[in-house]
Specification:
The chain has about 220 residues and is an alpha/beta fold. The chain is built from 6 helices and 12 strands. It has helices spanning about 25-30, 95-105, 145-155, 170-175, 185-190, 205-210; strands at about 10-15, 40-50, 55-60, 65-70, 85-90, 110-115, 130-135, 140-145, 160, 165-170, 195-200, 215-220. The strands form 3 sheets. A 7-stranded parallel beta sheet has the order 4-5-6-8-10-11-12, with helices on one face. Helix 3 packs across helix 4 (about 170-175).
């Protein structure tokens, strides 16, 4: 194709690790695109031993799609002005610095989904870091996660959320990190929630209502 001067791609592949002997590295993937001189090609390779699965994401940069899924700690960075929706997953903890990078990389972010069962190792070392800000986020899904991430997003000394937020979260970690809906540092962000989706049946008592004064509650189980 001699007249083709621009080639955009976004490829994500999933592999099973059950019978794999030799695993490709990110450098291996980059070498396959060495002839793409007119385009910047970014690649990211991740392996998840517990799931016995690997993934490879290859895309053109600047990135023009409105979504970016399955971001891990190997996120290569960059600026993604077009992206409105992301999902985060890893078998290793997401630390505070990671969420700062995510907030800066996706300035127009409206929906964030997080799945990570590993608690943070450096959660008490965040005093010198800036506040994490998601000024346009209106849909936050915290399902299948460690309670540390519920605390990180709802604590207004760590994260500043936008108004009119739809929050999906499991009830047990929510109750635990808010100290049974009595912790003051989480009232500010929780008051911004207008729709709360919880995958469990639970009793709604007065203190809960005061903690989420503007919320419409949806229970699904």
């Amino acid at each position: 194709m001699p007249r083709l001067n621009k080639f955009l791609l976004n490829i994500r592949s999933i592999i099973s690790l059950n019978d794999q002997i030799s695993l490709l590295s990110n450098n291996d993937i980059q070498r396959t695109f060495s002839n793409f001189t007119g385009n910047q090609i970014i690649s990211c390779v991740d392996y998840f031993p517990k799931m016995k699965r690997g993934q490879c994401h290859v895309y053109s940069y600047p990135y023009t799609l409105s979504y970016y899924h399955n971001i891990t700690n190997n996120f290569p960075g960059g600026l993604f002005k077009c992206v409105r929706e992301i999902s985060l997953y890893d078998e290793h903890p997401f630390e505070y610095e990671f969420f700062i990078e995510i907030a800066q990389a996706f300035p127009s972010l409206r929906k964030l989904s997080l799945s990570n069962r590993k608690g943070q190792k450096l959660k008490n070392n965040n005093m010198n870091y800036p506040l994490i800000k998601y000024p346009h986020l209106n849909d936050l899904e915290l399902i299948d996660i460690h309670k540390d991430y519920v605390e990180l997003f709802l604590d207004n000394t760590k994260t500043l959320l936008s108004d009119n937020l739809c929050l999906s979260v499991e009830y047990r970690p929510l109750r635990k990190v808010t100290n049974n809906f009595k912790k003051d540092t989480m009232r500010f962000n929780c008051a911004k929630v207008i729709q709360l989706m919880i995958p469990a049946k639970f009793k709604i008592f007065q203190r809960f209502k005061a903690y989420f004064p503007h919320v419409k509650i949806s229970q699904f189980y």
